[in-house]
Design brief:
Shape: globular
Distance between the termini: 28 Å
Pfam families: PK_C (PF02887)
Protein name: Pyruvate kinase
Strand content: 15-25%
GO molecular function: kinase activity
CATH class: Alpha Beta
Strand order of the largest sheet: 3-2-1-4-5
Order of helices and strands: HEHEHEHEEH
Organism: Amaricoccus solimangrovi
Number of helices: 5
Keywords: Kinase, Pyruvate, Transferase
Number of strands: 5
Structural class: alpha/beta
Number of domains: 1
CATH architecture: 3-Layer(aba) Sandwich
CATH topology: Pyruvate Kinase, Chain: A, domain 1
Radius of gyration: 13 Å
């Protein structure tokens, strides 16, 4: 995510996390963009509240790639980190819910209409996985 923020005009870095490790590693390099840490765990959100540049947001558990993209775009827009047409970087792990499995970096442009659905929702299907 650090490289994406350095090369692209990224307005926000969004991490979908279970343990908080991805957000901690991202904050360690002090990126110029804010880090929105989406987590279903209130305990992890409380821990991340003390981390530099990180804004924890408690969300419902994600059901797949499309849900993470929608939550990330919505959180970035709702919190004022990014606006219509801005670019955000999303980091998550597939399969979801497995700590230490961050292996996904997705660059997403917020829709111009900001209607709550990602502009490129059809491409999100490639990240759909089933929970086992």
């Amino acid at each position: 995510t650090r490289e994406a923020a350095a090369v692209l005009p990224v307005k926000a870095l969004v991490t979908y996390i279970d343990s908080g490790a991805t957000s901690l590693r991202t904050a360690r390099v002090r990126p110029p963009a804010p880090i929105a840490a989406l987590t279903p765990s209130p305990a992890v959100a409380r821990q991340l509240a003390l981390v530099w540049g990180t804004f924890p947001i408690v969300t419902p558990p994600a059901e797949g790639g499309r849900a993470i993209v929608a939550m990330a775009c919505g959180a970035a827009a709702d919190r004022g980190f990014a606006g219509a047409g801005d670019i955000i970087a999303i980091a998550a792990g597939v399969p979801f819910g497995v700590p230490g499995s961050t292996n996904l970096l997705r660059i997403e442009q917020l829709p111009v209409e900001l209607d709550g659905s990602p502009r490129n929702a059809a491409r999100a299907d490639m990240f759909e996985t089933e929970r086992v």
